[in-house]
Amino acid sequence: MEKVILRNEMPSDYRVVEEMTREAFWNNHVPGCDEHYLIHMMRNCHSFIKELDFVAEIDGKVVGNIVYAKSKIMGDKSKYHDVITFGSVSVLPEYQGKGIGAMLI
C-alpha cells in the first residue's frame, strides 16, 4: 500500500471529506446515510475538537477521516464524567480493510 499521511483537516477539505464519508457509509446499515451531514453539523458545534479532526491522505487524495467531540457520561447517582468520543470514522470503500481506520483512531 502507498504511504498514508495523517494530518489535520483543513477548511479546503470539508466538501471532499463529506463526499468521502457519504460514499463510505452509503447503504451500509440503512438505505442512504446521514454521517456526512453529521460531520457537516459537528464542525459548528461547541463540543467539536478541531485539533482532533484528522484526514488520511494517499498520493494527495483524502481517503479517510475521523472527528472527535467532547461528551459526558452519566454515572452512578447522576454524576457526570467528561469524556471524548470519536466518530464517525470514514474510509473510502476501496481503501477499507487496509488499516487506515485503525491509523486514524
Automatic annotation (TrEMBL):
Gene Ontology molecular function terms on file: acyltransferase activity, transferring groups other than amino-acyl groups
Transferase among keywords: yes
This protein's UniProt keywords: Transferase
Domain N-acetyltransferase positions: 4-105
CDD domains noted in UniProt: NAT_SF
UniProt xrefs under Pfam families: Acetyltransf_7 (PF13508)
UniProt keyword Transferase present: yes
Protein's name in the database: Acetyltransferase (GNAT) family protein
The organism of origin for this protein: Lutispora thermophila DSM 19022
Phylogenetic lineage: Bacteria, Bacillati, Bacillota, Clostridia, Lutisporales
